[in-house]
């Protein structure tokens, strides 16, 4: 055990004081009764201080949870190592972390008694690692309630104020850009309905579905060839089918009323082709949402080679756009694998992760060859059927799909 030199000096001074007060005592003799009180105090002080100093790591190794994040040793790492460490802890590179922080600061997002960068790091730790506030509090020695407040503040701002900044609905360049990735003209994105599991002790029956053994809410998302989300919606519990969720969304309302996905127009065999999305059989066939022929009871792709060619191209685009986008979303932001927030915060947390995903994709954050990919268990799709009010749109969609299949087969 190593004793601090200053404490040795204190011990020496106390012994001299003892000799001055009692000249008859032998300061080197522990048998002298009068020397016991002072000697005991000095030795106890030296030993306790020495034990404290030897059992406590250097202050530089223990970051102060309420100090600015910039005071942590992580900032002194070389750029490549620092980026890797930030991605591991917070899901974002160092530069992207600072960019997000600068976007948030004008809105005074976090509790005033905690530095903004520290608050952001706590919230991102929850979202990227998927841990609860209670579990994270044991690591950072802060109250779970404070961590929850930081998380809710971040997700609220991302899902509202900053949402439109990073989720651009159907930019005009989508159609021309997608032509390099698919032979299907005017295909601008792919849509999916993805369940987000909820960690609830006593879930409501509306959150349960016969297709999955856990409570959930549905995320309806559209992504393009960049694996960037261009639309997202969380409005339905897990018991609702994807077609019904679609019909409740603003995407359906705007597209079916001619306020969305109207230009540019491509002419094929006399048929006007407006921008459209690719979907699976759980969605209805609509002019702005085309599904495979094989999902239609009246069609048989085996008897129509052009149908099979169309289906192959449509399914391939889905496999290269929306499917990896969802896999990356839940891979990077692990909280979406088992959402441990209250039901009243579920939708905003999911939408916040969508925004964070887009930030990563637009900044070209590494996808690490599958490291971040997460695959949900496969589910049996329940084919969707058109409503009576949709029959006119269904007939138009059939003509559009036929024209696209014929054009693709001829080429």
From TrEMBL:
InterPro entries xref list = HARBI1-like, HARBI1_dom
Primary location: nucleus
A GO CC term attached to the entry: nucleus
Give TM segment ranges: none
Compartments where found: Nucleus
Q: Does the keyword Hydrolase apply?
A: yes
This protein's cofactor list reads: a divalent metal cation
What residue range is the signal peptide? Answer: 1-19
Q: Does the keyword Transferase apply?
A: no
Origin: domain of life: Eukaryota
Specify the DDE Tnp4 domain's residue ranges: 214-358
Q: List the keywords (alphabetical).
A: Hydrolase, Metal-binding, Nuclease, Nucleus, Signal
Which GO terms label this protein's molecular function in UniProt?
hydrolase activity; metal ion binding; nuclease activity
The Swiss-Prot or TrEMBL record describes its family as follows: Belongs to the HARBI1 family.
Protein name, entry field = PIF / Ping-Pong family of plant transposase
Which organism encodes this protein? Rhynchospora pubera
Q: What is the lineage of its organism?
A: Eukaryota, Viridiplantae, Streptophyta, Embryophyta, Tracheophyta
């Amino acid at each position: 055990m190593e004793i601090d030199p200053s404490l040795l000096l204190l011990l020496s001074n106390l012994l001299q004081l003892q000799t001055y007060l009692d000249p008859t005592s032998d300061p080197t003799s522990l048998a002298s009764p009068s020397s016991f009180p002072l000697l005991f105090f000095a030795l106890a002080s030296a030993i306790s201080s020495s034990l404290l100093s030897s059992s406590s790591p250097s202050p530089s190794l223990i970051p102060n949870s309420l100090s600015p994040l910039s005071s942590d040793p992580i900032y002194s790492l070389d750029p490549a190592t620092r980026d890797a460490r930030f991605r591991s802890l917070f899901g974002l590179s160092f530069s992207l972390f600072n960019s997000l922080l600068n976007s948030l600061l004008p809105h005074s997002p976090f509790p005033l008694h905690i530095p903004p960068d520290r608050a952001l790091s706590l919230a991102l730790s929850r979202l990227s690692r998927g841990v609860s506030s209670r579990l994270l509090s044991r690591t950072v020695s802060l109250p779970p309630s404070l961590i929850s407040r930081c998380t809710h503040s971040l997700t609220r701002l991302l899902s509202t104020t900053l949402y439109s900044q990073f989720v651009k609905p159907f930019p005009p360049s989508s159609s021309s850009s997608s032509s390099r990735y698919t032979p299907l003209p005017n295909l601008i994105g792919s849509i999916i309905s993805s369940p987000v599991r909820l960690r609830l002790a006593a879930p409501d029956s509306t959150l349960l579905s016969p297709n999955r053994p856990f409570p959930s809410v549905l995320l309806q998302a559209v992504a393009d060839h960049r694996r960037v989300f261009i639309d997202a919606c969380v409005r339905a519990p897990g018991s609702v089918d994807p077609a019904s969720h679609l019909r409740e969304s603003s995407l359906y309302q705007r597209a079916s009323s001619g306020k969305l996905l109207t230009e540019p127009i491509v002419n094929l065999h006399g048929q006007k082709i407006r921008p459209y999305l690719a979907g699976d059989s759980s969605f209805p066939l609509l002019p702005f949402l085309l599904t495979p022929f094989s999902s239609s009871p009246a069609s048989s792709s085996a008897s129509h080679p052009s149908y099979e060619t169309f289906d192959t191209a449509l399914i391939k685009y889905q496999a290269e756009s929306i499917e990896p986008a969802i896999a990356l979303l839940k891979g990077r932001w692990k909280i979406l694998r088992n959402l441990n927030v209250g039901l009243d915060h579920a939708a905003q947390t999911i939408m916040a992760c969508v925004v964070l995903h887009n930030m990563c994709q637009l900044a070209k954050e590494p996808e690490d060859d599958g490291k971040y990919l997460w695959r949900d268990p496969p589910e049996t799709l329940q084919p969707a059927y058109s409503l009576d009010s949709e029959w006119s749109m269904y007939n138009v969609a059939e003509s559009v799909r036929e024209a696209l299949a014929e054009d693709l087969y001829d080429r």
